[in-house]
Amino acid sequence: MSYWSSTRCSERLHDKMVVAILKAPVMFFDSNPVGRILHRFLKILVGWTSSYPKRFSQRSIDTVLLVSASIIIPTVMNPWLFFVLTDGCQQQQPLIVSVIYFATYYLKTSRELMRLASICRSPVFSKISEPLDGLDTIRTRGRQSDFVEEFYRHHDVLNQANILVLASGKWISVRFEILASLFIDAVALAAVLVSQDAAFAGLALAYVVERFGPTQNAVRKTAEVENLMTSVKRVITYTKFECESGYIIERRPPEKWPSEGNIILKDVSLAYYPGGPQVLNNIKLNIEGGAKIGVTGRTGSGKSSFVAALIRMPESVVK
């Protein structure tokens, strides 16, 4: 059921992302490299579809339930362990408080580290796809080594972020192994002090030794699920772009439009991004249908901007 639901959700997200990107303005592609867009589709969306059901249903929930059983069963067998979990000693924190503290600290840190690794991964995809478009120019100028070195540099940064992610996992593992050892010692000591029945003591120790150790694994899997949901949030942002104005038609033209090929511009201005300088300012022009015209001017006079305004890339402003 989880596989079907995650696959269904990923299909809907994928379709919404495709539609939103196809309708996105040109400014979006100027400010977002190709590698970042590919990373949204490839690493996040596809990875979430294949990893989320396994990590959530088979690993995260199952591990949390097993760890809960390893705490509840020994506590029921020997109620004195409840004070070890909740009250602690005079100069030490309760065991459950330490577990919650380390788990919360690790979840916050791993979330930021995974976001950092995701940000560092996008330039790697860009340095693979972008040189393919200008491969002839790169080979003609003999700049292969420069692009290779730049790729290695971005890849080293990605490896540094991945090493931090692995180091955070080792950090939580060491601390939870120490807490697990303390709880095992407490179970064994409590069984001796209260002269607990051998069968109950053996059952409690068996559950603690076998199940309480993977506590750090449960926290890590929970962090992975949370990071996957954070990735889904980043995907959803790609489905809420403002589309170009041509896709929103308030009033449709007549059926026989256009009856004439006239082009009329009235006070048309153009800026390549919101708040940027105007490259065209109050253009007034009337081109009769069937006429042949040419646009001439020196470099930087606005010839390309005039053509961009005609085909609405980007959208021009009419005062």
Automatic annotation (TrEMBL):
Q: Report the Gene3D superfamilies cross-referenced here.
A: ABC transporter type 1, transmembrane domain, P-loop containing nucleotide triphosphate hydrolases
Q: Which InterPro entries match?
A: ABC1_TM_dom (IPR011527), ABC1_TM_sf (IPR036640), ABC_transporter_C-like (IPR050173), P-loop_NTPase (IPR027417)
- Keywords, in A-Z order: ATP-binding, Membrane, Nucleotide-binding, Transmembrane, Transmembrane helix, Transport
Q: Where in the cell is it found?
A: Membrane
Query: Any idea where the ABC transmembrane type-1 domain is?
Result: 1-208
Keyword NADP on entry: no
List membrane-spanning regions.
64-85
Gene Ontology CC terms: membrane
Q: Which SUPFAM superfamilies match?
A: ABC transporter transmembrane region (SSF90123), P-loop containing nucleoside triphosphate hydrolases (SSF52540)
Organism superkingdom: Eukaryota
Hydrolase among keywords: no
Q: Cite the GO molecular-function annotations of the record.
A: ABC-type transporter activity; ATP binding
Q: Name one Pfam family in it.
A: ABC_membrane
Q: Which PANTHER family match?
A: ATP-BINDING CASSETTE SUB-FAMILY C, MULTIDRUG RESISTANCE-ASSOCIATED PROTEIN LETHAL(2)03659
Protein name from the UniProt record: ABC transmembrane type-1 domain-containing protein
